Amino acid sequence: MKWKNKKVLVTGGASFIGSHLTEKLVILGAKVRVAENFSSGERNHLANIECETFEGDLLDPSFCSKATKGIEVLFHLAADHGGRGYIDSHQVECSTNMILDGQVFRHAHQNGVEKIIFASSGCVYPTSAQMDVGKEVFLYEDMVTPPYEADDLYGWAKLLAELTLKAYHQQHGISTASCRYFTVYGPRCTENHAVMAMIARGYLKLDPFEVWGDGEQIRNWTFVDDIVSGTISAAENICDGTAVNLGTMERIKVKECAKEVIDTLNPSASIKLLTDKPTGPLNRVASNELAKKLLGWSPRTKFLDGLQKTIDWYIDSKSTEQAKIDLAKKVVGR
Ligand SMILES: NC(=O)c1ccc[n+]([C@@H]2O[C@H](COP(=O)([O-])OP(=O)(O)OC[C@H]3O[C@@H](n4cnc5c(N)ncnc54)[C@H](O)[C@@H]3O)[C@@H](O)[C@H]2O)c1
């Protein structure tokens, strides 16, 4: 696909991932429009990016129709979403994503959008396959199959959107693809995601250093630049609604991540485990074999390198006074 002058819409384009995607598409020469209600997206994320901004709520049909008009390629990232502390306790809010996604796809179809790429999630995978930390589990795309067992209403909404996009392709021939993102981190990410909460605690020299759960949880934290390159590659290579994992195969325990952050920012701190806090599935790591095969994609950033870049960004972009403000609220918010 040639991106030069391509008319692209990024919904949720002021978000953490959305702003990095918007930035890259502009560099590639696309004419990018962002549709945003700034409910969690931040205006300053777009400050230096040459894109058009449509401000409004995509749950409003007339705004949704206006935002999708004249667009060739749509990246749909807008969602009611946060970290584990948010999605577990805001099921009703997350359920609205079913309305949002259906409406965005419907208006995109009515307005003749040629291609839709959707920001899906590792939350579509059966939770029961992700509970044994003693196993070397890798999640393969074909494990998402009837009777289905998504993770909370947030995961069910992502799954329904994937299935909806497959149906749009089959019935109407629209080119569609879904990218299953796995625990993304990097510059501009907020403290409601575990890595960023840990960086904030280290930066503020909090002692004891709180860790949610027993620290044995396993994740494949994936750096945002890799997510952006995979998403663009999915737009270029998938048209039949296939969903593909975008995640590293590095298996990192939460306590290992905590130790790295402590060693870098506050070596004398001791860890306090908060076992009553939500952790989500205990063992969530993607296979990226399909992404290699279909997209020629594999992640380039090793966790320790990405973590260091993210720590550097956090320290450069916030004073300790700013990092301190409402930290307890931020870790469970959007
Ligand atoms: N961050 C992750 O680890 C991760 C993992 C899997 C999937 N995802 C998905 O990636 C996407 C981006 O997530 P993120 O973490 O960068 O930030 P995010 O969840 O804050 O992004 C959502 C964006 O959508 C906007 N938005 C929400 N509702 C809207 C509405 N009704 N109308 C217009 N705009 C609206 C918000 O202001 C925000 O900018 C989301 O769809 C999320 O579900 C993220």
Can you tell me about this structure?
The chain is an alpha/beta fold and 334 residues long. It has 2 domains: 7-184 and 223-246, 3-Layer(aba) Sandwich (Rossmann fold); 186-220 and 250-284 and 301-330, UDP-galactose 4-epimerase, domain 1, CATH 3.90.25.10. The protein is built from 12 helices and 14 strands. The protein has helices at 16-27, 61-68, 84-87, 91-110, 152-172, 194-203, 224-237, 254-265, 289-295, 303-317, 320-324, 327-330; strands at 7-11, 31-36, 52-55, 73-76, 115-121, 175-181, 184-185, 209-212, 218-219, 222-223, 240-246, 252-253, 271-274, 283-284. The strands form 4 sheets. A 7-stranded parallel β-sheet has the order 3-2-1-4-5-6-11, sandwiched between helices. A 3-stranded mixed β-sheet has the order 12-9-14. Strand 1 (7-11), helix 1 (16-27) and strand 2 form a beta-alpha-beta unit. The longest helix has 21 residues, at 152-172. The radius of gyration is 19 Å and the shape is globular. The mean pLDDT is 97. Bound molecules: nicotinamide-adenine-dinucleotide (NAD). Nicotinamide-adenine-dinucleotide (NAD) is lined by residues 12, 14-18, 35-41, 57-59, 77-81, 100, 119, 121, 181, 183-184, 193.
